[in-house]
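Board notes (copied after class):
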Amino acid sequence: MSMPRKAALACAALATTGLLASCTSNSTDSGDSGGSTTVSSNDDPGENVVIGFSGPQASHGWMAAINRFAEEAAAQYDDVDLRVAEGTNDPSTQVSHIETFINDRVDAIVLLPTDGAALTQVATQAMEAGIPVINVDREFSDDAAARLTLLGDNYGMGVSAGEYACGLIAEHNLGDDAVIAEIAGIDSLPLTQERSQGFADALATCGQDVDNRVAAEFTVDSGERAASNLLQAAPEIDIIWNHDDDQGVGVKAAFDNAERDEFFFIGGAGSANAMRWIEAGEMEATVIYPATQAGDGIKLARLIAQNRGMSDLVQIEVPRRIVLDAPVVTADNLDQYTPMGFES
Protein backbone atom coordinates (compact mmCIF):
# COMPACT_ATOMS: atom_id res chain seq x y z
CA MET A 1 0.00 0.00 0.00
CA SER A 2 2.99 2.29 -0.22
CA MET A 3 5.44 3.78 -2.68
CA PRO A 4 9.06 4.80 -2.11
CA ARG A 5 9.40 7.49 0.57
CA LYS A 6 10.56 10.30 -1.73
CA ALA A 7 7.78 9.70 -4.24
CA ALA A 8 5.23 9.46 -1.44
CA LEU A 9 6.28 12.79 0.01
CA ALA A 10 6.11 14.43 -3.43
CA CYS A 11 2.56 13.20 -3.94
CA ALA A 12 1.58 14.08 -0.41
CA ALA A 13 2.50 17.71 -0.89
CA LEU A 14 -0.36 17.91 -3.36
CA ALA A 15 -2.94 16.06 -1.39
CA THR A 16 -3.41 17.02 2.24
CA THR A 17 -6.84 18.05 3.39
CA GLY A 18 -5.60 21.50 4.23
CA LEU A 19 -4.38 22.03 0.70
CA LEU A 20 -7.61 20.94 -0.85
CA ALA A 21 -9.63 23.11 1.48
CA SER A 22 -7.59 26.24 0.83
CA CYS A 23 -6.82 26.05 -2.87
CA THR A 24 -6.41 29.34 -4.67
CA SER A 25 -7.58 29.92 -8.18
CA ASN A 26 -5.35 29.66 -11.21
CA SER A 27 -8.27 30.78 -13.32
CA THR A 28 -11.38 32.55 -12.11
CA ASP A 29 -13.32 31.58 -15.23
CA SER A 30 -14.84 28.14 -14.87
CA GLY A 31 -16.62 28.67 -18.17
CA ASP A 32 -18.33 26.05 -20.32
CA SER A 33 -15.95 23.13 -20.55
CA GLY A 34 -17.68 21.57 -23.51
CA GLY A 35 -16.73 18.20 -22.06
CA SER A 36 -13.09 19.12 -21.43
CA THR A 37 -11.46 19.57 -18.04
CA THR A 38 -11.41 23.11 -16.66
CA VAL A 39 -9.42 24.60 -13.83
CA SER A 40 -11.08 26.99 -11.40
CA SER A 41 -10.98 27.51 -7.66
CA ASN A 42 -11.69 24.09 -6.19
CA ASP A 43 -14.50 25.34 -3.98
CA ASP A 44 -16.29 27.39 -6.65
CA PRO A 45 -19.81 26.02 -7.29
CA GLY A 46 -20.03 23.63 -10.21
CA GLU A 47 -22.43 21.23 -11.87
CA ASN A 48 -24.60 19.27 -9.43
CA VAL A 49 -23.24 15.75 -9.00
CA VAL A 50 -24.33 12.59 -7.19
CA ILE A 51 -21.57 10.71 -5.38
CA GLY A 52 -22.04 7.24 -3.97
CA PHE A 53 -19.98 6.41 -0.88
CA SER A 54 -19.36 2.95 0.57
CA GLY A 55 -17.29 2.88 3.73
CA PRO A 56 -16.38 0.46 6.49
CA GLN A 57 -18.39 -0.67 9.47
CA ALA A 58 -17.55 1.74 12.30
CA SER A 59 -16.05 -0.92 14.56
CA HIS A 60 -12.84 1.03 15.17
CA GLY A 61 -12.30 4.72 15.90
CA TRP A 62 -10.30 5.26 12.72
CA MET A 63 -12.95 3.50 10.62
CA ALA A 64 -15.74 5.61 12.12
CA ALA A 65 -13.74 8.73 11.33
CA ILE A 66 -13.34 7.66 7.69
CA ASN A 67 -17.13 7.75 7.30
CA ARG A 68 -17.54 10.97 9.29
CA PHE A 69 -14.97 12.92 7.29
CA ALA A 70 -16.57 11.74 4.02
CA GLU A 71 -19.96 13.08 5.06
CA GLU A 72 -18.49 16.32 6.42
CA ALA A 73 -16.60 16.94 3.18
CA ALA A 74 -19.73 16.45 1.09
CA ALA A 75 -21.73 18.76 3.36
CA GLN A 76 -19.42 21.63 2.44
CA TYR A 77 -20.82 21.73 -1.10
CA ASP A 78 -24.32 22.58 -2.27
CA ASP A 79 -23.51 20.94 -5.61
CA VAL A 80 -22.95 17.47 -4.08
CA ASP A 81 -25.67 14.90 -3.37
CA LEU A 82 -23.95 12.22 -1.28
CA ARG A 83 -25.57 8.79 -1.15
CA VAL A 84 -24.12 6.74 1.69
CA ALA A 85 -24.35 2.95 1.80
CA GLU A 86 -24.48 1.29 5.20
CA GLY A 87 -20.97 0.63 6.49
CA THR A 88 -19.86 -2.97 6.13
CA ASN A 89 -16.88 -5.28 6.57
CA ASP A 90 -18.40 -7.88 4.23
CA PRO A 91 -17.07 -7.83 0.63
CA SER A 92 -20.22 -9.35 -0.89
CA THR A 93 -22.40 -6.71 0.77
CA GLN A 94 -20.13 -3.98 -0.51
CA VAL A 95 -20.26 -5.41 -4.03
CA SER A 96 -24.05 -5.07 -3.90
CA HIS A 97 -23.64 -1.45 -2.75
CA ILE A 98 -21.51 -0.66 -5.79
CA GLU A 99 -23.91 -2.48 -8.12
CA THR A 100 -26.74 -0.30 -6.75
CA PHE A 101 -24.69 2.84 -7.40
CA ILE A 102 -24.05 1.65 -10.97
CA ASN A 103 -27.74 0.98 -11.55
CA ASP A 104 -28.58 4.41 -10.13
CA ARG A 105 -26.09 6.02 -12.54
CA VAL A 106 -24.35 8.10 -9.90
CA ASP A 107 -21.71 10.50 -11.18
CA ALA A 108 -18.84 9.07 -9.11
CA ILE A 109 -18.19 6.39 -6.51
CA VAL A 110 -15.89 6.69 -3.50
CA LEU A 111 -15.15 3.58 -1.49
CA LEU A 112 -12.79 2.12 1.05
CA PRO A 113 -12.80 -1.51 -0.08
CA THR A 114 -13.31 -4.22 2.51
CA ASP A 115 -11.00 -6.28 0.30
CA GLY A 116 -9.31 -4.69 -2.70
CA ALA A 117 -9.12 -7.88 -4.76
CA ALA A 118 -12.74 -8.82 -4.04
CA LEU A 119 -14.00 -5.38 -5.13
CA THR A 120 -11.88 -5.09 -8.28
CA GLN A 121 -14.40 -6.65 -10.65
CA VAL A 122 -17.39 -4.53 -9.64
CA ALA A 123 -15.23 -1.39 -9.58
CA THR A 124 -14.14 -2.22 -13.12
CA GLN A 125 -17.80 -2.55 -14.11
CA ALA A 126 -18.44 0.94 -12.75
CA MET A 127 -15.51 2.36 -14.69
CA GLU A 128 -16.71 0.65 -17.87
CA ALA A 129 -20.13 2.21 -17.27
CA GLY A 130 -18.48 5.63 -17.31
CA ILE A 131 -18.62 6.16 -13.54
CA PRO A 132 -15.25 7.22 -12.08
CA VAL A 133 -14.21 5.22 -9.03
CA ILE A 134 -12.11 6.75 -6.26
CA ASN A 135 -10.40 4.00 -4.29
CA VAL A 136 -9.41 4.90 -0.72
CA ASP A 137 -6.72 3.22 1.41
CA ARG A 138 -6.83 -0.35 0.00
CA GLU A 139 -5.76 -0.91 -3.57
CA PHE A 140 -7.57 -2.95 -6.19
CA SER A 141 -5.74 -5.78 -7.92
CA ASP A 142 -6.01 -3.89 -11.22
CA ASP A 143 -5.10 -0.20 -11.51
CA ALA A 144 -7.69 0.21 -14.25
CA ALA A 145 -10.47 -0.41 -11.71
CA ALA A 146 -10.05 3.12 -10.31
CA ARG A 147 -9.85 6.61 -11.80
CA LEU A 148 -8.01 7.70 -8.64
CA THR A 149 -6.28 5.70 -5.92
CA LEU A 150 -5.87 7.69 -2.69
CA LEU A 151 -3.70 6.10 -0.04
CA GLY A 152 -2.15 6.61 3.35
CA ASP A 153 1.57 5.87 3.59
CA ASN A 154 2.15 2.90 5.87
CA TYR A 155 5.86 2.59 5.10
CA GLY A 156 6.22 6.35 5.44
CA MET A 157 4.43 6.18 8.79
CA GLY A 158 7.15 3.86 10.07
CA VAL A 159 9.83 6.09 8.58
CA SER A 160 8.38 9.15 10.31
CA ALA A 161 8.29 7.34 13.66
CA GLY A 162 11.84 6.08 13.21
CA GLU A 163 13.21 9.44 12.14
CA TYR A 164 11.59 11.07 15.15
CA ALA A 165 13.05 8.40 17.43
CA CYS A 166 16.51 9.06 15.99
CA GLY A 167 16.01 12.75 16.75
CA LEU A 168 15.10 11.97 20.35
CA ILE A 169 18.18 9.79 20.75
CA ALA A 170 20.43 12.59 19.52
CA GLU A 171 18.66 15.32 21.48
CA HIS A 172 18.75 13.46 24.78
CA ASN A 173 22.15 11.79 24.30
CA LEU A 174 20.71 8.31 24.67
CA GLY A 175 23.67 6.82 22.80
CA ASP A 176 24.15 3.71 20.71
CA ASP A 177 22.67 1.46 23.39
CA ALA A 178 19.24 3.16 23.50
CA VAL A 179 16.51 0.59 24.17
CA ILE A 180 13.78 0.87 21.54
CA ALA A 181 10.50 -1.06 21.65
CA GLU A 182 7.71 -1.48 19.12
CA ILE A 183 4.06 -2.43 19.61
CA ALA A 184 2.78 -3.43 16.18
CA GLY A 185 -0.69 -4.17 14.89
CA ILE A 186 -1.78 -7.46 13.29
CA ASP A 187 1.46 -8.98 12.00
CA SER A 188 -0.14 -10.86 9.11
CA LEU A 189 -1.34 -7.64 7.47
CA PRO A 190 0.85 -5.98 4.81
CA LEU A 191 0.17 -2.56 6.38
CA THR A 192 1.73 -3.72 9.67
CA GLN A 193 4.71 -5.21 7.86
CA GLU A 194 5.21 -1.97 5.92
CA ARG A 195 5.04 0.16 9.07
CA SER A 196 7.58 -2.05 10.82
CA GLN A 197 9.90 -2.05 7.82
CA GLY A 198 9.79 1.74 7.59
CA PHE A 199 10.54 2.02 11.31
CA ALA A 200 13.49 -0.37 11.05
CA ASP A 201 14.88 1.35 7.95
CA ALA A 202 14.74 4.78 9.58
CA LEU A 203 16.34 3.55 12.80
CA ALA A 204 19.18 2.01 10.81
CA THR A 205 20.16 5.46 9.54
CA CYS A 206 21.16 6.43 13.10
CA GLY A 207 22.68 3.07 13.99
CA GLN A 208 19.71 1.80 16.00
CA ASP A 209 17.36 -1.16 15.85
CA VAL A 210 14.30 -2.49 17.64
CA ASP A 211 15.28 -4.29 20.84
CA ASN A 212 11.82 -5.47 21.92
CA ARG A 213 8.81 -6.01 19.66
CA VAL A 214 5.29 -7.31 20.36
CA ALA A 215 2.15 -7.35 18.20
CA ALA A 216 -1.45 -6.51 19.10
CA GLU A 217 -4.68 -6.60 17.05
CA PHE A 218 -5.76 -2.95 16.73
CA THR A 219 -8.06 -3.32 19.74
CA VAL A 220 -7.92 -1.87 23.25
CA ASP A 221 -7.77 -5.25 24.99
CA SER A 222 -5.03 -6.59 22.74
CA GLY A 223 -3.06 -3.37 23.15
CA GLU A 224 -3.13 -3.69 26.92
CA ARG A 225 -2.06 -7.35 26.80
CA ALA A 226 0.77 -6.71 24.37
CA ALA A 227 2.04 -3.69 26.28
CA SER A 228 1.92 -5.57 29.58
CA ASN A 229 3.98 -8.40 28.08
CA LEU A 230 6.45 -5.90 26.69
CA LEU A 231 6.92 -4.14 30.03
CA GLN A 232 7.50 -7.44 31.82
CA ALA A 233 10.14 -8.44 29.27
CA ALA A 234 11.99 -5.12 29.30
CA PRO A 235 12.72 -3.56 32.70
CA GLU A 236 14.11 -0.40 31.09
CA ILE A 237 13.01 1.20 27.81
CA ASP A 238 13.99 4.52 26.21
CA ILE A 239 11.49 4.80 23.33
CA ILE A 240 8.27 2.93 22.48
CA TRP A 241 6.42 3.25 19.17
CA ASN A 242 2.84 1.94 19.14
CA HIS A 243 1.42 1.54 15.62
CA ASP A 244 -2.18 2.40 16.38
CA ASP A 245 -3.78 4.95 18.69
CA ASP A 246 -7.01 2.95 19.02
CA GLN A 247 -5.13 0.02 20.53
CA GLY A 248 -3.11 2.74 22.26
CA VAL A 249 -5.92 3.18 24.80
CA GLY A 250 -5.05 -0.26 26.13
CA VAL A 251 -1.32 0.37 25.71
CA LYS A 252 -1.55 3.53 27.81
CA ALA A 253 -3.58 1.68 30.45
CA ALA A 254 -0.82 -0.93 30.73
CA PHE A 255 1.78 1.82 31.17
CA ASP A 256 -0.31 3.46 33.90
CA ASN A 257 -1.02 0.17 35.70
CA ALA A 258 2.69 -0.66 35.74
CA GLU A 259 3.57 2.90 36.75
CA ARG A 260 6.11 3.01 33.92
CA ASP A 261 6.85 6.34 32.26
CA GLU A 262 10.63 6.38 31.85
CA PHE A 263 10.34 6.18 28.06
CA PHE A 264 9.31 8.47 25.22
CA PHE A 265 5.91 7.23 23.98
CA ILE A 266 5.17 7.65 20.26
CA GLY A 267 1.76 6.72 18.86
CA GLY A 268 0.28 6.12 15.44
CA ALA A 269 -2.76 7.25 13.42
CA GLY A 270 -3.68 10.47 15.23
CA SER A 271 -6.57 9.86 17.61
CA ALA A 272 -8.14 12.52 19.79
CA ASN A 273 -6.89 10.58 22.82
CA ALA A 274 -3.34 10.85 21.53
CA MET A 275 -3.76 14.58 21.01
CA ARG A 276 -4.98 14.97 24.60
CA TRP A 277 -2.11 12.86 25.95
CA ILE A 278 0.40 15.00 24.06
CA GLU A 279 -1.19 18.16 25.44
CA ALA A 280 -1.02 16.73 28.97
CA GLY A 281 2.64 15.71 28.57
CA GLU A 282 1.80 11.99 28.81
CA MET A 283 2.82 11.19 25.25
CA GLU A 284 5.68 12.49 23.19
CA ALA A 285 4.15 12.37 19.70
CA THR A 286 1.91 10.51 17.29
CA VAL A 287 2.34 9.84 13.58
CA ILE A 288 -0.67 10.64 11.41
CA TYR A 289 -2.29 7.98 9.25
CA PRO A 290 -5.03 10.20 7.83
CA ALA A 291 -8.60 9.34 8.75
CA THR A 292 -9.46 12.17 6.36
CA GLN A 293 -8.75 9.99 3.31
CA ALA A 294 -12.38 9.48 2.35
CA GLY A 295 -13.04 13.20 2.86
CA ASP A 296 -10.26 13.93 0.40
CA GLY A 297 -11.77 11.27 -1.86
CA ILE A 298 -15.16 13.05 -1.84
CA LYS A 299 -13.56 16.39 -2.68
CA LEU A 300 -11.61 14.90 -5.57
CA ALA A 301 -14.57 12.82 -6.81
CA ARG A 302 -16.54 16.06 -7.02
CA LEU A 303 -13.86 17.68 -9.19
CA ILE A 304 -13.53 14.62 -11.41
CA ALA A 305 -17.30 14.30 -11.88
CA GLN A 306 -17.47 18.01 -12.76
CA ASN A 307 -14.63 17.68 -15.30
CA ARG A 308 -12.47 20.00 -13.25
CA GLY A 309 -8.85 19.88 -12.19
CA MET A 310 -7.03 20.87 -9.00
CA SER A 311 -6.49 24.59 -9.06
CA ASP A 312 -3.10 24.43 -7.32
CA LEU A 313 -1.69 22.25 -10.11
CA VAL A 314 -0.51 23.33 -13.53
CA GLN A 315 -1.72 19.91 -14.73
CA ILE A 316 -5.43 20.30 -15.42
CA GLU A 317 -6.37 16.71 -14.59
CA VAL A 318 -6.76 15.34 -11.08
CA PRO A 319 -3.85 12.86 -10.60
CA ARG A 320 -4.49 9.13 -10.85
CA ARG A 321 -2.61 8.28 -7.67
CA ILE A 322 -2.06 10.27 -4.47
CA VAL A 323 -0.21 9.10 -1.38
CA LEU A 324 -0.83 11.23 1.70
CA ASP A 325 1.93 12.27 4.08
CA ALA A 326 2.59 10.76 7.53
CA PRO A 327 3.53 13.81 9.62
CA VAL A 328 4.59 13.66 13.26
CA VAL A 329 2.36 15.54 15.71
CA THR A 330 4.04 16.99 18.79
CA ALA A 331 3.24 19.65 21.36
CA ASP A 332 4.74 22.19 18.95
CA ASN A 333 2.21 21.61 16.14
CA LEU A 334 -0.68 20.11 18.08
CA ASP A 335 -3.10 22.95 17.32
CA GLN A 336 -2.73 22.30 13.60
CA TYR A 337 -3.71 18.63 13.82
CA THR A 338 -6.20 18.53 16.68
CA PRO A 339 -9.23 18.98 14.33
CA MET A 340 -8.15 15.79 12.53
CA GLY A 341 -8.14 13.71 15.73
CA PHE A 342 -10.71 10.91 15.90
CA GLU A 343 -12.34 9.47 19.01
CA SER A 344 -11.32 5.91 19.87
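Comment from the instructor: The chain has two domains: 17-151+291-324, 154-288. The first strand starts at residue 49 and ends at 54.
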